[in-house]
Amino acid sequence: MKDSKALKKIFDLLKSEQTALSESAKLVADAIKARHSDAVLALIFYGSAMRDVDDPEKMLDFSVIVKSYDLIYRNPVLRLATAALPPGVHYIQIEDANGRKLRSKYAIVSEAAFYRRVSSGLESMFWAR
Which of helix, strand or coil describes residue 14? Predict the structure, then answer.
């Protein structure tokens, strides 16, 4: 990344704004990280489930910043489509230790696309979260 100092500032800001995740959100975040292994740089948890995380009807929302789409998509058409029109939206469902279903939709965006989008001004996909 050519402007890694600016990107580091963005990540530092995100880290400074972090709050502790609920157990449900942590389980889902861990499942997302496990699914995409070494590609994940950061996860941003947002949405109404932050307030009502124990509501079984709520879907947990995450933005997942990854190193590269090459590490996520083996299919070159999906890779190209996601690079042209980020983010790629995915779904995951897991169960907690009590058998309760935890559902999440998450948006995958590459580090480069994230940087372009947040540095270009008003990008509601991220700043409104």
Answer: helix
State both tokens at 41: 């740089």
Q: Exposure string (b/e) for 105-128, b if CB count within 10 Å is 16 or more?
A: ebbbbbbbbbbebbeeeeeeebee
Q: Distance between the two ends of the chain, CA-based, in angstroms?
A: 24
Nearest partner of 19 among 48, 50, 41, judged by Cα: 50
* pLDDT, tens only, 41-69: 989 888 877 777 677 778 999 999 999 99
For 23-82, what is the HEC assignment?
Answer: HHHHHHHHHHHHHHHHHEEEEEEECHHHCCCCCCCCCEEEEEEECCHHHCCCCHHHHHHH
75 contacts 88 by C-beta, under 8 angstroms: no
Task: Give which of 83, 100, 104, 84 is closest to 33, Cα–Cα.
Answer: 104
Question: Could you read off the pLDDT of 70-120 as tens digits, one per residue?
Answer: 999 999 998 899 888 888 899 999 999 999 999 999 999 999 888 887 776
